[in-house]
Amino acid sequence: LTNKDGSLLTSISPNLSGDIKSGNESFITPPASSIDLKSNLLCRRDFFIRLDKKIIRLSDNHSDLLEAGFLYHKIIKKFQGLQVEMINFIPYDLDIDIMWVRIINRSRKTKKLTPTSFMPLYGRSAENIRDHRHVSSLLNRIELHSYGLLLKPTMVFDENGHFLNDKTYFSFSFQDRFRPPLGQFPSLEYYIGKGDLLKPDALLKEVKPLTRAFDFLQGKETLASFRFKTEMLKPGEKKDYIIFTGMFSSSRNSQAKTLKFLKSLNSPEKVGLKLEKTKEYWQNYLKAIEFDFKDPDLNNWLLWVKFQPLLRKLFGCSFLPHFDYGKGGRGWRDLWQDALSLLITEPKKAKDLIIQSFKGVRIDGSNATIITSNGGFLSDRNKINRIWCDHGVWPYISLRLYLNRTGDTSLLLKEIHYFQDHLKSRAKVKDPGFLSQDFVMRTKNKSIYKGSILEHVLLELLTPFFNVGKHNIIKLENADWNDGLDMAAKNGESVAFSFLYADHLRDICFFLEQLKKKNKKIPLLQEIAILFDSLEKPIDYNNYKEKIKVLDRYYKATASLSGRKKYFYIDNLIYDLRKKSSHMFLWLRKKEWLNEGFFNGYYDNISRRVEGRNQQGMRMMLSSQVFSIMSAVATDKQVKKIWASITKYLQDKELGGFRLNTDFGSTYLNLGRAFGFSYGDKENGAFFNHMNVMLSFALLSQEFVAEGHKVFESIYNMSVSKKAKIYPLIPEYFNSQGQGLYLYLTGSASWYIYTLVEQILGLKFNLGNIVLAPKLQSENFRKNSIEFKFRFCQKNLHISYFKLGKNKGPLRVEKVFFNDKPLISFGKDFMIAGKDIKNYPGSKIHIKAYLR
Question: CA geometry: angle at 153 spanning 151 and 155, to 5°?
């Protein structure tokens, strides 16, 4: 649960466990990891009802009706003639977590009940859960009000330097029409007494709730536990209990603003109206692109998948129970893949995101790895000096989609600054004297240097080309997409990502050709000429030592940047880039294809080839094959053999999904931590959805339609299976039992929508135009049509695909109508000019395509 700007972030599960926070330093309730969800009563929003002499805990019993919506969570329980509805949500425009409990007497007898709420208030950093948990609680100061309590710790406990706390955590409650609770149990100690959390004195003995804060409450673990009036609930009668939880800064304006919000929600009717407004807000957000496969289950599931990229944007890579690492912010790779989905639904926002994000590139072609919530950059969340070799790949994929979506190639020439920190030469050198506070690259004359976005992209593609190991393959560095391959920094090499760099060096030439129509020459950093070696001092690309020497020359030349620029003929740049790409294509096809029928993807830290048959059996990794196909390095003949190997070694015949790798054994200290994980979990042999959806994309992009659909559908089938045990979404991975783990915060969702739109529904963008080239099969049609809607050029486009005849397998488009006007095909594709859409006088356009 969260609001529109992610200023309050919460998690909740069917037993009401989870946590509430605004950031890593401001957990309002105790941080919850996955193990806490079922084992830790302090990580629950709870509610108790004394019914006659029996105490009923509402977080117990999972055989209830659960309704999860955008973005609210509702549980309905029925027992002893009572119906209890519990709704949790955060208003889309407020920083308040709301728990609304409604008790209805459905019996024919009057019921005597006494309600008590339970919500631990933690009020400090996640670090203090283990680091000085007790000592930091001594800083707690509690102030009671008739409607609730305020917790304001005196200081923030940090042994690097303690400082005054400016945050106040609160929980307020009322019954029915703004009637305050009878009193409170403001500390865990007072609530428990001589019992424990399962049998607390506050519930089992006649402990009086307090109405003012006594000295003995200070310096204790704080609790928001409200005792409400005992009621004689008549048949058909209902009672409402509403609890607000949140935080504000110490300024008077913040406190006054919070109290104003609370007064604006001082009745169940007002809370109900805010809930409906919140539902409406998120439903409107989801209308940016709509799918209708004439299958309610699939349609509804796709709504949740569309929602996931926004949730990761707001949550970063932290703050959900399985994501119990990091301190907030998104990773570099995550940032760019989230942009894929944004580019389809919100291209204007995506443009700003792209421009801002390229400011995280260093002059050595590497980049910052963490993007903070306010758009700043950090070297690494854990302050470790490390570089991932795949990071230069992802910005270009998102930039390419933007350029094709909009036709705005002028963006390539926009000048922005570079990121600079204490790391140089792709983290091989550390600058102990680095003092910059703004992390902006400056010249030797202390002036800020700016280069074009094109220059940033070129540096990210060119430096890896020269940064190779003994096998003339791009160095793995501290890992690639698979973060678990993190123990081969010295000699490891990534064939997998060499495939994509080879493709991108060639592909970017298409956009350079577009720029050439207006400018024959463009300005670039003077020192970048070293990396365009074929224009001045050509080297032998088959000799890895010569490549490394070129890169070292570039590092030395940019150690103290001149800031001067040089004009380059675009034709010369294209010549050099294509020469590099051609070399890589030929090298990879010749050197890394295995007799076993697939590509090797890695070399380990002692320079051994990783994949293929050895004494332990067959070693195969899915990412090696995915990127060989996606890049088109693999020929059609090779793709057929790769698919046969994938289905033989990596497909699970029972669950239907595709594993990330075969079982390498218990450890592989010369490659990475992944192989210490149990086989079938996380990066070691799990059904990793991010890579699976990229496999589907790769196969479809190379016209292996049936194979691509088989992978694509396996993700949906595993997600909705009872074995998954999850809400509707794509998890990061499924384990060997088919259970979904690491929910919501995964790049799989962006790639799933991207693949669905561009490959399956065939809505391709080409320099501001639309090309319809669907890769649909007869089996995709639940009925005789598939429809989707989205906005393009300020128009509402409604695209309908109609199936003709009863053919099985892949279908081809026979004819297309633009508002009943037939379109002319270009080969097997149909293009709709962006200018025709812009100039159309109406606001709605209906495109109908007929397939057979």
Answer: 165
- For strand 795-803 and strand 844-851, is the pairing parallel, antiparallel, or unpaired? parallel
DSSP for residue 647: H
Residue 21, C-beta contacts closer than 8 angstroms, at least 6 positions apart: 8, 9, 10, 27, 28, 29, 31, 126, 319
- Please name every residue paired with 289 in a beta bridge, in sequence order, or none if there are none: 790
Residue type, 165: N
The string of pLDDT tens digits covering residues 157-183 is 888 888 999 999 999 999 999 999 999
For the stretch 617-668, pLDDT in tens is 999 999 999 999 999 999 999 999 999 999 999 999 999 999 999 999 889 9
Residue 423 to residues 420, 475, 581, Cα–Cα distance (Å): 8, 18, 28
Dist. CA 740–CA 742, nearest whole Å? 7
If you search the block for the tokens 């942009």, which residue do you land on?
A: 339
Count Cβ neighbours within 10 Å for each residue of 338-360 and write b for 16 or more, e otherwise.
bbbbbbbbbbeebbebbeebbbb
Q: Please give the structure tokens belonging to residue 499.
A: 């495939």
CA diameter of the chain:
94
Say what angle helices 748-755 and 705-720 make with each other, to 10 degrees: 130
Listed in sequence order, the residues at least 6 apart from 622 whose beta carbon sits closer than 8 Å to its beta carbon are 646, 650, 658, 659, 660, 661, 688, 691, 692, 695
Bridging pattern class, strands 72-79 and 82-89: antiparallel
With a CB cutoff of 8 Å and minimum separation 6, the contacts of 711 are 658, 692, 693, 695, 696, 699
Task: Provide the token pair at 574.
Answer: 């294209």
Burial 489-522 (b: 16+ CB within 10 A, else e): bebbbbbbbbbbbbbbbbbbbebbeebbeeeeeb
The pLDDT tens digits for 658-678 are 999 999 988 999 999 999 999
Among left, alpha and beta (phi > 0; psi -120 to 50; other), residue 273 is alpha
**pTM of model > 0.85:** yes
